[in-house]
Amino acid sequence: MHIAIAGNIGSGKTTLTTLLSKHYGWDAHYEEVDQNPYLDDFYGDMMRWSFNLQIFFLHSRFRQIHDIRKGDKTVIQDRTIYEDSTIFAPNLHDMGLMSSRDFDAYMRLFDLMEEFINPPDLLIYLDASVPTLVEQIQKRGRPYENSIRLDYLKRLNNRYQDWVKGYDKGQLLIIDVDNNNFAENAEDLGKIISKIDGELNGLF
User: Which of 41, 67, 72, 78 is flagged as catalytic?
Assistant: First the structure.
């Protein structure tokens, strides 16, 4: 089974992936952040490095999905390939930070990849307001994230809202991060686990 966690930058995807992996004994597949050779450059010059960054993430997540489907274990994935193609790349293009030529090439590649993948059995979306995102980004203190623009986060959040409203690829569970401190509160985490148990029962 394939469970995936979606959400904006700073919403808590990696933290929740780790906590649920430990609770259920699932294999965790994390977003390649520390190993990404373009991330620092991207936040310093988004227009120059946007295409390179998105291609790196697209390849990384396609490989993860390939590995998940080859295996026989339940896997929880930190961010989905759909977020790249429906949120991040289009947002960069609309902001003038990715050329139409690069965006078209990116989407042609994604459209081809999509023919060979299956969506997650359960998608967990972490819904967080921009102030919450900013607070959590500052709390984790990644140097390259210091230059993230507020309007960039707002645009991403708007796209996430639209995407989730129309999501029809499988079961969806929405977690209100503003009112759930699962990272530090065991009771809040327990509430999420109870909701996931309910969703998983519907998959069998």
Answer: 78
Nearest to 79 by CA among 8, 173, 135: 8
Which domain range does residue 7 map to?
2-201
Q: Which two tokens stand for residue 184?
A: 């530090």
Q: How far apart are CA 99 and CA 31, in angstroms?
A: 25
- What letter does residue 12 receive in the DSSP assignment? S
- The verdict on whether 151 is a catalytic residue reads no
Q: What is the pLDDT of residues 11-23, one digit of tens each?
A: 999 999 999 999 9
CATH number of the domain bearing residue 174 = 3.40.50.300
Question: What is the tally of structural domains in the chain?
Answer: 1
CB distance 122 to 4 below 8 Å: yes
pTM of the prediction? 0.91
CA 60/CA 149 separation, integer angstroms? 25
Q: Read off the pLDDT of residues 101-158 as tens digits, 9 standing for 90 and up.
A: 999 999 999 999 999 999 999 999 999 999 999 998 888 777 667 767 888 899 999 9
CB atoms within 10 A of CB 162: 12
